[in-house]
Amino acid sequence: MTIIDGKQTSLDIRDEIKKEIDDLREGTGRVPGLAVVQVGENPASRVYVNSKVRTCEAVGMHSEKYLLAKDVSQDELVELIEKLNRDEKINGILVQLPLPKHIDEELITETISSEKDVDGFKAENLGRILMGEEDCFKSCTPYGIIELLKRYNVELSGADAVVIGRSNIVGKPLAALLINESATVTVCHSRTKELAEKVKQADIVIAAVGIKGFVTADMVKEGAVVIDVGINRGEDGKLYGDVEFDGVSKKAKAITPVPGGVGPMTIAMLMKNTLKSFKKYQN
Ligand code: GUN
C-alpha cells in the first residue's frame, strides 16, 4: 500500500517553480506576482491566505495581501479587483471564498480578468476545461489531484473513476479533467442512488463531500486508488478527511492522507497557474 505524499510532491513542484522564477528574474529582472484578497476574519480563510502568501515567498514570487473589513461594500471590492486587473506587477488575483452574504461571489469571480483567474473559477475557464483545452487555468484542487495521480504513475486512461461531490470548484472540473485523461467517470452526490455500489466499482475513488469519514472500507474495491479532498475538523480539534483512513487504507493500493495529501497540492498548483499567467501574458 502506498501513501500518496502530497506534501513532498508539492515541495518538489515548488522547487521546480522556484528554479523557473530564478531564471526569469535573471533573464528579465521580473517575477510573477499574486494578489490575495481576504474579506473579513474567517479563521479558516486566514490560515489559507497566509499559507498562500508564504508559499509565494518560498518560490520567489511577488505577493500582495489585501485584508478588507467584513462590511466592505461590493462596489469597493469590485474597484480593488479592477485596479489589480490593470496592475502589471500582478499576474494572478485570488479572492478567498466564502465571501460575506452581502457580496455576490459570482459577480466578484467574474470581475477578475480571465488572464489573471489563477483559481480557475470563472465560467470561461471552466468551459475551457470542459472543451479539453490544455492551455487554460485549471482549478487548483482538481489540477493538483491529476498531477498527484500522474506523478504516482496511476493509469488514468480507461480507468473507472468515481468522483463523490459535484461542486463547481472540485467535483465538476475534476470530472472534466479525468474525462480529458480518458478515464470513465461517474459523478456521485447527495441524490445518488446506491452510491456505495457505484463507489465499489471504481479503480479510482475521489471523495470531495465534506463529511468526515464518509467513505468506509466496505465501499471500496480491493486495490483501488483513493484520493481524499475532505478537510473536516473533528470534535477533538484535529483534521479529518472524507475517507475513513484506517479501514480504507487496508484495502486500497494507494491513498492520500489528511492532512498532507491534496491540500498542499492545491497551493502548489496556484503557484503553477500564476507562473503560467506571467509566461503567457507578460510582455
Ligand atoms: N475557498 C476554499 N478553497 C478555496 C480556493 O481554492 N480558492 C479560493 N479563492 N477560495 C477558496
Report on the structure:
With 283 residues, the chain is of the alpha/beta class. It folds into 2 domains: 29-113, Rossmann fold (3-Layer(aba) Sandwich); 140-262, 3-Layer(aba) Sandwich (Rossmann fold), CATH 3.40.50. Helix content is 42%, strand content 16%. The chain has helices spanning 6-28, 43-59, 74-86, 105-111, 123-130, 140-151, 171-180, 195-200, 245-248, 262-281, and strands spanning 2-3, 33-39, 62-68, 92-95, 160-164, 184-188, 204-207, 225-228, 232-233, 239-240, 254-255. The strands form 3 sheets. Strands 1-11-8-7-5-6 form a 6-stranded parallel β-sheet. Strands 3-2-4 form a 3-stranded parallel β-sheet, sandwiched between helices. A two-stranded antiparallel sheet has the order 9-10. Helix 6 crosses helix 10. The longest helix has 23 residues, at 6-28. The protein is globular, with a radius of gyration of 19 Å. The mean pLDDT is 97. It binds guanine. The site of guanine has 7 residues, from strand 4. Guanine is lined by residues 94-97, 119, 140, 266. It comes from Propionigenium maris DSM 9537. Residues 139-280 form the Tetrahydrofolate dehydrogenase/cyclohydrolase NAD(P)-binding domain. Homodimer.
